[in-house]
Amino acid sequence: MDPTTFEVQSLFYHNAYAGCVALAQKHAPNGIVDDASLLQLVYAARAALAMNDVPGARQLLGEDAEHPVAMSVLLLADLKEMKSLDDDAGMADVLEQMTTLLDVVEPGELSSEIVRCNVGLALYESGDKEKALHTLQVTGQGGSTELECVALGVHILLSMHRVDLAEAEYLAARQVSDDSLLVQYMEAWIGLVRGGRATQQAYYVYDEMSQNTTIAHTAHQVPALVGKAVAQAAQAHPSEATATLNDAVQLDAAFPLVGANQAVLAALSAPTSSADAEALARQHAQAQPASELAQLWDTKRHELEEALAAMA
């Protein structure tokens, strides 16, 4: 992998999505011309989708992209649109098209790994966690060497409260490449979910990541700083976590998860002022209407209102 593609990939893995897009556009301004620019724009388009920028993802790859890895990203964009329209038939059709791409890519290549990961992500976002894990070949047995697939699989397993299986996959992945960014992040995720002493190791991971020369002292550092702050809060160090989030604000005050975690810390630091924490969370949700936090806020508020009505 050439240095530029590696840097674009690293920014994507660090969740520095805006930086990933900007770097890919800088080095591949004329679209897909070779394998290197293809991968750069694929990672950039995936980053755009992670920011809910469907038109941006399409523009990066072009609507007529024919390579399977590019097609898998464009179909993932289609799926997001179908989901927003509650078009179940359209979603099923897109999922079928994505699945067929697995038959036309060469196993063992990075493009094949990305296609499989995108198909797994599509299934997960469609609500089929079990089929997503089967497609990713991540079932707690540690058999996959495709680290992007393993990382997504670990995320899914943690969402299913199967920390034991997630840890088994992480340990197997560590044997494949213990210095991979994805493997290190897996360790941090599991540590935060396990809690207790494991949060200390999660802190070490995020602290080291935040000092990575690729992202240090730039807005790209903010996701790692947020992770570091979460680990500090999990260790009952709210003042240190607040200081870390303040550092993040100085670099990118608009990053969605900064405000969300500031609300959590407000509640942790001053339990008697939960109304202030709720107000901060609401303010953040209104400022980020398309964010997952805002959607979760609205869902939970609606569920609470229904529960109260049922009890009245």
From TrEMBL:
GO terms for molecular function: structural molecule activity. It is a peripheral membrane protein. GO terms for biological process: endoplasmic reticulum to Golgi vesicle-mediated transport; intra-Golgi vesicle-mediated transport; protein transport; retrograde vesicle-mediated transport, Golgi to endoplasmic reticulum. The keyword Ion transport does not apply. It holds the Pfam family Coatomer_E. SUPFAM superfamilies: TPR-like. GO terms for cellular component: COPI vesicle coat; Golgi membrane. It is found in: Cytoplasmic vesicle, COPI-coated vesicle membrane; Golgi apparatus membrane. Its main location: membrane. Keywords: Cytoplasm, Cytoplasmic vesicle, ER-Golgi transport, Golgi apparatus, Membrane, Protein transport, Transport. It comes from the Eukaryota. The coatomer is a cytosolic protein complex that binds to dilysine motifs and reversibly associates with Golgi non-clathrin-coated vesicles, which further mediate biosynthetic protein transport from the ER, via the Golgi up to the trans Golgi network. The coatomer complex is required for budding from Golgi membranes, and is essential for the retrograde Golgi-to-ER transport of dilysine-tagged proteins. Belongs to the COPE family. This is Coatomer subunit epsilon. It comes from Malassezia sympodialis (strain ATCC 42132) (Atopic eczema-associated yeast).
